[in-house]
Amino acid sequence: MNSFTFQQIGIIHSPFKSKFGIPRQPGLSPSSVAVLELFPPYNQPETVEGLADFSHVWIVFAFHATAERGWTPTVRPPRLGGNERIGVFATRSTHRPNPIGLSVAELERVEFDNEKVLIHLRNIDLMDRTPVLDIKPYIPYSDAIPNAFGAYASNAPQPKLTVFFEPETEMQLKTTPELRQLIIEVISLDPRPAYKEGRTDDKIYGMAIGEVDVKFKINQYVATVVAINNQ
Question: What are the structural domain ranges in the chain?
Fold first, then answer.
C-alpha cells in the first residue's frame, strides 16, 4: 500500500468562518465569494497563465476542520433525512479515509497584487482557511454529463425556509445588501441537522458570516434573524 505526501499550494479566504451554515454543495449560494491565495513558490503569474479564460475551476482541498475525526465506513447523508446510513464512498461526507474534498466554483478573475496571486471565486461551499491542494480548469464537454443521474441527490436542494429580519437587524443590513442576500441564501437552505426540517425549536442558532455573527430562530418553515453582532 502506497502513501503520499501533498504540498499545500494555497489557502481560501471565505465568508464562512465555521462549519455550521456552509452550503452543503457548491452552486447553492450565488452571493458567496471567496479568494484563493497561492503560496510560494506557486504564487507566480506563470502558474495561472490562461486560467482566466475558463468560467469555472475545480478546487481540490483538505477537510482541515474535521480531519482529526478520522473516517467511518457508513455515514448519514442530510439528503436522506440524516437517518439512513450508506457507504462513505457513495457520499461526499467529510469523514473520509483521506480528508480530501472537491468543489467547483465560478471563476470571477485572477488578480496579481505585488507578489500575491489571488484567484477570485463565487458560488462556493468552502470554509475560511481551507488548505488548497490543487486547481484544475472545469472542462464543460467532459465535466458536464447531460444524461448523468445522482441517486438520492439528482436534483439541487430547494430553499426550505422563508427568511425574515427583525426591524433592528434589517436596519443594520441596510448599507450591505450583498451581506443580507448571502444570509438569506444560507439560512433558507436550513443549516440544521436534517431531522429537524419542518420542526419548531426554542434554540437560537448562530453562525459566523464574514465579519458578523448572525443569530436566528426557526418556527416550522420560517426563519427570523433576531440579531447581528460584530465578531
Answer: 10-143, 162-230
10-143, which class in CATH?
A: mainly beta
- Cell for 159? 430553499
Residue bearing cell 444524461: 147
162-230 fold: YaeB-like fold (3.30.2310)
**53-84 tens-digit pLDDT:** 999 999 999 999 887 888 989 988 888 877 88
Q: What is the pTM of this model?
A: 0.90
Query: Taking Cα atoms as reference points, which of 50, 47, 24, 22 lies closest to residue 37?
Result: 47
Q: Please state, in angstroms and rounded to a whole number, the distance separating the CA atoms of residues 23 and 185.
A: 9
Q: Where are the alpha helices (DSSP H) in the chain?
A: 140-143, 167-172, 177-188
pLDDT tens for residues 84-102?
Answer: 899 999 998 888 999 999 9
